[in-house]
Amino acid sequence: MKVLTVFGTRPEAIKMAPIVKELEKRENIKSVVAVTGQHREMLDQVLKIFDIVPDYDINIFKSGQTLTEITTNSMLGLEKIFDEVKPDVLLIQGDTTTVFSAGLAAFYKKIKIGHVEAGLRSGNIYSPYPEEANRKLTSVLTNYHFAPTKNNRENLLKEGYNEENIYITGNTVIDALKYAIDDNYVFEDELLNKIDFENKKIILLTSHRRENIGQPMENIFKAVLDVVREEDVEVIFPIHLNPKVREIAYKYFKGEEKVHLIEPLDYLPFSNLMNKVYLVMTDSGGVQEEAPSLGKPVLVLREETERMEGVEANTAKLLGTDYKVIYDNLKELLHNEEEYNKMAQAVNPYGDGRAAKKIIDILEEEFKK
């Protein structure tokens, strides 16, 4: 069986790395890896961490690229690769524009598609944007839906997909995290090494979503700032490279001694930072899956989430972007030890770290049929 994996961004690379590594172990599978380079530097960092050398790199990245450019350039580059490789199966992951582009290009060639992390839904086509549309459009083209959880499977069944083509596997992000965490990890940034994680309540904040830029982000940062000024806590905020995010971050946090504004972190330091902090506040998707597996409560700074399993399992709270809601919930977790422990000790709903093996086992069985 010839399996082509395609990915283009850092989050995809992290979640596909365990799959690529599993494919490499199988003697009866020819594994081919192609990357679009939708992200460039961040993607390359992950490839290096997991020791993955792509067979093809179409390198579409350019500053300020539009969604249309990403889609068309990915499809044109991948079409040539599909013609050359002639894979039996394409494996794609998640909800990026690379994922949809690769799926559509493969469909045009009548290549079977396996969608890793299938069935996530927020219910709002514009939130997250464009990811919600990407994942729904990709599902239409998919032959093998690898759903991380029962909820994801139910979403697909409600949309009319054949249950025989839906498999619950857990999420490969947990596989990757097991590889990354080191309790004795030393950061390159000396500032992080000097922070007293043992004796102080340290909050990890990330915020970058397009739909939060503007007043929602102002509300988030003001609530965090007010709590920081009232409590004996510190915040670490790796600021996204988006100039609009940085402008709002500097407006609220520049000069605040207890808020550490740092550059975006690579996967390894970020994962190990997550492992050391007291709690996580985020509008990211993947962090909602990773933090619970490390026993860290997550406050989700979004109006909707496609990862409701964490909310239902009480590993995460969906707060939205209202100032008072964020302020009150952050205060509660800092003072209410019982509530904190309930969240920290809740069972992670995203799997046991063996998702990649399950996915490749399924593909092998299907190929035999």
UniProtKB/TrEMBL annotation:
Official protein name in the record: UDP-N-acetylglucosamine 2-epimerase (non-hydrolyzing)
Lineage top rank: taxon: Bacteria
Organism: Anaerosphaera multitolerans
GO molecular function ontology, one term from the record: UDP-N-acetylglucosamine 2-epimerase activity
Pfam families: Epimerase_2
Xref: Gene3D superfamilies: Glycogen Phosphorylase B
Family: Belongs to the UDP-N-acetylglucosamine 2-epimerase family.
EC number from the UniProt entry: 5.1.3.14
UniProt domain UDP-N-acetylglucosamine 2-epimerase: residue ranges: 21-364
Group of enzyme by EC: isomerase
Keywords: Isomerase
Alphabetized NCBIfam families for the sequence: wecB (TIGR00236)
